Request: fold
Amino acid sequence: MLPITSFLSCTEPIDQFECFSMRQKHHAKTYVTGLVAASNKTAQGISNIVLPAKSERALNKFFTEYD
Reply:
């Protein structure tokens, strides 16, 4: 599968959430893009295929440590 180089347009409403910081919005967009487009739906699979992803570690932190 070819890597995904930008977020999908369906993630644009995430920018409207004021409860997320800019980094949290980035991770949420990465997650949603990965769920839609990646065949491997794990944090590692999403961070490998979605190129704007910071890292697998950052995505895991978003899943587990943010409110």
